[in-house]
Automatic annotation (TrEMBL):
Region feature Disordered, mapped onto this chain: 136-168
Protein name: Pyridoxamine 5'-phosphate oxidase N-terminal domain-containing protein
Coiled-coil spans in chain: none
Domain Pyridoxamine 5'-phosphate oxidase N-terminal: 19-106
Pfam family, one: PNPOx_N
Organism ancestry: Bacteria, Bacillati, Actinomycetota, Actinomycetes, Micromonosporales
Amino acid sequence: MATWTEFAAATPWLASSIRALLHQYGPGMGYLATVRADGGPRVHPVSPIVTDEGLYCFVIDSPKRRDLERDGRYALHAFPAEDSDVEAYVSGRAHPVTSIATVEHLARSHRAAPTLDWRLYELTVESALLHRHEAGAHPHTWRDPAAGRSGPAHERRPRKPFLQLVAA
């Protein structure tokens, strides 16, 4: 799976558009889907953190965290925009962050309460999607070529820059 940095290097416009949607209200806002032990989906609101170094999420002790510890697969959907019909989605695997410096830096900069039992995860990217719903529109997607999934890795460029998509 690609890191956020690798994904952003492969498709800068798509990564910056998704980052803008995740942080459209200031702090990151989205819905994190995980896989329950019985194989069903579990969805919770989260505050993802997108930096130039990676895509991260603090996860408290919860069924969601146990899902990530057991399976690791996730899907992250940006919180819906109030003024547009643009959607963003990223999926891949979550990995616990073991770098103490990274954990401390993100905990300080994002005010993660030290009294809570949370763990920081890096979310690697297997696929990403940006979609504006309009007649005849096609989603703009990216798939990590190294992930080994069938089908071509491809990118479709939007007809308008992302900021115009949101403002339209």
